[in-house]
Design goal:
Elements lengths: L2 E7 L2 H8 L2 H8 L3 E7 L12 E2 L9 E2 L1 H12 L7 E11 L2 H7 L4 E6 L4 E2 L1 H7 L2 E4 L9 H12 L10 H4 L24 E2 L2 E2 L9 H19 L28
Bound molecules: ligand 9D3.
Length: about 260
């Protein structure tokens, strides 16, 4: 069964073209995933179709109201029998990692909520208990681009989406070094062997596959040590899986 991804947003029209392009587009053309975009505004009840209001306490900006978002989630969840993993894209969320992406790629159904404005009324977050995910420590104007980032990262891992089986496994962050830690990739070269006085490392043209393998691992380790020593530190923490998932999530092995 294809992964179903529902996205709740105030700007569905902005997401469609990206989802129809490149790997996400190919994934849906090939039947590995289906995308369903929903405008939260469609669940408003007033004639002005209001989705936000001024915050109590007098901070600046606007807050996304509970009712339209809650009704949207309930209605969209009812469009399919399978349980959803509810995800709120939020600057306060867990930082998205390849491990989390791999976890999400195993699920039957994802429901992504892309907020706009200063944030979402805390009570609807408490009620829905979504997993909250951030894509990094910088300020964007909304959760739509983060939702697209998440979709791109997840769907390329689905069976049959990438050309050859190894493409996903060879990535930076997917390559495992000592003790299964993830390493950066090493350098790559193609023809010509000489360019602007720079030559391709001899080992790569030696035909000695074992030497190439060792050299490559060496380069990956050196580069990771130099550029991202944090990746080599004692275990990148294990995934807190069940506590962050929606209550309607599928059953897990854990009690
Ligand atoms: C800096 C104070 N804020 C706004 C003036 C808080 C704030 C609210 C809402 C900051 C950004 C946003 C909109 N961003 C997202 O919804 C978001 C996001 C992000 O900004 N960075 C990284 N990941 C994400 S996931 C969702």
């Amino acid at each position: 069964m294809a992964l179903r991804i529902d996205i709740l947003t105030l700007f569905p029209e902005a997401l469609g073209p990206t989802l129809d392009t490149s790997i996400p587009g190919r994934a849906s053309d090939g039947g590995a995933v289906s995308y369903h975009l929903h405008n939260i505004r469609d669940w408003t009840r007033d004639k002005h179709r209001t989705v936000d209001d001024r915050p109590f306490g007098g901070e600046p900006g606007m807050v996304m109201m509970c009712q339209p978002l809650h009704d949207a989630v309930m209605a969209v969840e009812g469009l399919d029998d399978r349980p959803t993993c509810r995800i709120l894209m939020s600057p306060q969320g867990e930082r998205l990692s390849q491990r989390r992406v791999e976890d999400l790629a195993t699920r039957p159904r994802l429901l992504l909520i892309a907020g706009h404005y200063e944030g979402v009324d805390e009570r609807v977050i408490e009620e829905l208990q979504p997993m909250e995910l951030s894509i990094g420590d910088y300020v964007l104007s909304g959760g739509e681009i983060p939702a697209l980032v998440l979709v791109d990262a997840v769907v390329r891992l689905l069976p049959g989406v990438l050309g050859h089986k190894d493409s996903a496994g060879a990535d930076s962050f997917a390559a495992a070094g000592p003790e299964g830690r993830r390493l950066l990739e090493g350098p790559h070269y193609t023809r010509p062997r000489q360019w602007h006085g720079r030559t391709v490392p001899d080992v790569l043209v030696s035909g000695d596959h074992e030497a190439v393998r060792q050299w490559r691992m060496r380069m990956m380790l050196d580069r990771t040590r130099q550029r991202r020593p944090d990746l080599l530190e004692a275990d990148a923490q294990p995934l807190p899986r069940t506590p962050l998932t929606a209550t309607t999530d599928e059953p897990t092995d854990e009690p």
